[in-house]
# Entry
Amino acid sequence: MGDTPAVILLSGGLDSATALAVARHEGFRTYALSFRYGQRHEVELAAARRVADAIGVERHVIADIDLRVFGGSALTGDLAVPHHDRPEDLGNQIPDTYVPARNTIFLSFALAWAETLGAEDIFIGVNAMDYSGYPDCRPEYIAAYEQMANLATKAGVLGNQHLRIHAPLIALSKAAIIELGRSLGVDYSLTHSCYDPEPSGAACGTCDSCLFRRRGFAELGLDDPAAAAPG
Amino acid sequence: MGDTPAVILLSGGLDSATALAVARHEGFRTYALSFRYGQRHEVELAAARRVADAIGVERHVIADIDLRVFGGSALTGDLAVPHHDRPEDLGNQIPDTYVPARNTIFLSFALAWAETLGAEDIFIGVNAMDYSGYPDCRPEYIAAYEQMANLATKAGVLGNQHLRIHAPLIALSKAAIIELGRSLGVDYSLTHSCYDPEPSGAACGTCDSCLFRRRGFAELGLDDPAAAAPG
# Structure
């Protein structure tokens, strides 16, 4: 690894695994950050650990935060996760899997860690193409966050640093993300993207996240290596 | 209370108690948010509860987050809290009591709760006059946060809401804040501002926060009612 530290938000899903691989490929010394945030299952944290081990990180921290206190999302257990039969059924409305202000909260913790490490670079695996219309996955949001972050920190006062929020997948389709990750050697069988896994940890195959993922692999003529693997 | 909900960040200190009183005075239905964030003592959470009870809130939530995982601040136990003999000794440098990205994290949780409540208003008791030079207490930071917040949320996509970050104390001296709070009936004997209280809960009297507070009351020819009271 290089000498320049970067903080990477790592959920254990396909996108964040690819973002971590990009950060490594660009030569950063990587500090991976995951959250135990009252999600229904810990399968994705196990995936985050596997991905961090496989791709290689300087340190992997899992921060405890309780988003259940506010409610209002299917991913924190308040609402039902929507399921669909076919990728064509994915809607244009913001679904109940949206967690209010989630990326804003996650980036804020990444910012705190970056400042403590003296890091100027934060990676987040959002994308604005094959996604569920979440407001906090759009380029204008990331740009506004970066501007705020530079005013929020010592760097913004002392003028000796410039924080960058890297969103290397933001303009890529799911298929293009998978191609990029494969070119960087990402083993997608280690990742987990499902919003509503079986008790065994297996992906449900019918939530928005599973459908986007399935469609991405299908467009490349590939099978999803995680579909058959245990979670 | 009025019908319009607002989220208020409430630490239990002098400033946030005043900000809560301002929100009540402006007719908001108030939702107070405090954090158990690995601070050295829980004295300030007890003060937050007293203040919320006295001024009146619809609900008071204490969210658990662990900022110790990153380290780097005197307020999370990693560094020593600086003490001074006299208010004149307060420096111009950002002190070790700065918690990296703290207000950014706190506002992000407030944003999540506001979105869940359907609230468009968030109050934070920062001030840029008698403060310790923290970057996340400046008006340009608050303005950038508000801009980001409007892109981060469903409101920013649907266009039917506009989030406002209210910082009613930002341009006031400590003495002016105390005058404002007294005019609104705030009982400052309930508040707690000290960074490094005695085991009994009593304020130390010599940290930056105690000195700013003491100087504010002195400028008004008043004694600090919390100085003699048990924490």
Notes: The domain at 5-219 of chain A is CATH 3.40.50.620 (Rossmann fold). The interface with chain B takes residues 61, 63-67, 69-72, 94, 98-105, 107-109, 111-113, 115-116, 133, 135-136, 138, 140-141, 144-145, 147-149, 151-154, 156-157 of chain A (CB under 8 Å). The first helix of chain A runs from residue 14 to 25.
